[in-house]
Structure formats: C-alpha cells, structure tokens
Amino acid sequence: VSVKIQRPGIRKKFLEDLDTLKEMTDFAVKHNDAAKKYAVDEVLDELRFILLNELDYVKEAENLRVLAQNLQNFRKIFVPQPVDGYSTSKILTMEFVKGQKITSVSPLSRTENDYSALVDELVEAYMKQIIIDGFAHADPHPGNIHLTQDGRIALMDLGMVAKFGPEMRDDILK
User: Fold this and answer.
1) Dihedral angle at the C-alpha atoms of 88, 89, 93, 98, nearest 10 degrees?
2) Which uninterrupted H or E stretch holds 144?
3) What is the reported pLDDT for 163?
4) Nearest 10 degrees: CA dihedral of 58, 61, 66, 71?
5) pLDDT tens digit string along 94-139?
6) Per-residue pLDDT for 49 more than 90?
7) Disulfide-capable partner of 78 in 12, 62, 89, 152 (CB 3.0 to 4.6 Å)?
8) What is the DSSP string of 126-140?
9) What is the predicted pLDDT for the residue at 125?
10) Which residues, in sequence order, are bridge partners of residue 155?
11) 139 is catalytic
C-alpha cells in the first residue's frame, strides 16, 4: 500500500494564508479596476474551495472510487483504490503503484515500444471523463500519471477533480 499522511497543522496554515490572500484581493478589487474586471476575489474563492477539498482525504478516496468506476472499461488505465478501514480525512491508504512517472520513460523504451494504443486510450479516457461523465482528474502532471510495470497508465492523486455540468459538456463537445 501507499499511505498519504497530512502534515499536522497544514489545514490551519492554509486557512491563515488564504485569509491573508482574501484581504489582499478584497483590497485590490476595491482599489484597482483590473482586479475588479477580472474578479480576482471570485477566483480566490474558487481556489480556496479547491485547495480545502484537496485536504480532505475522505473526499479523495471517494474520487478514486468514482473515477475507477467511470473508467472500468479502459483496460490500460488503472486508478489505485483506497483501502477501506485504513483512511481518514487526514490519512489515505491506497493500493501501491509499481511504475514510473510517465515522463521518466526512457528514449530507448519509447523507440522499442509502441505506446500509441496506450496514449489513444488515455486521450479517450479523458474525453469520457470530461464529455460523458462530467467528472475529471484535474491534476494530470507527470507525478500523478505513471506507467505501471504491467504496461498500464495509473492516474493518481484525485484530491483535485473538475466537474462539468451538462451545458458545459455540450459546449465542449460542440
């Protein structure tokens, strides 16, 4: 298993930092036309919501379950699952992923292996997440996408997800 443990006091520190940023954005909106035009205070409110959700490992565990269910027909995509009974809001225990960051695949391996089917399935999986499910892994940097030893792509760290309503999904499809 892998165990993700939240640092003690991190939530309090996040809230303090976000409160400071809120004071700054409120001041900026009050005194600066560009800040008002681009609604930096509303952007910060959305950022606050996202970051605080990322600190709740119960939500992340549920996100892992939902994404795995949504992508169950994609045989080359793997979403590690939480281990029931061993996770809390501050501790997430999940299946261990044996593999490497997707960007760590050696040039020799890319020459010797045809990864096009894997890439096609990843793209198709993301299209399904966005257009059909309206629920997508929203932090797909190389540290969160690994090539497993058995040749699948693991999507990890579901603390941040994007949700798309029917109207937005329709607009994206068009």
Assistant:
1) 170
2) none
3) 92
4) 170
5) 999 999 999 888 888 888 888 999 999 999 999 999 999 999 999 9
6) no
7) 152
8) HHIIIIIISEEE---
9) 97
10) 145
11) yes
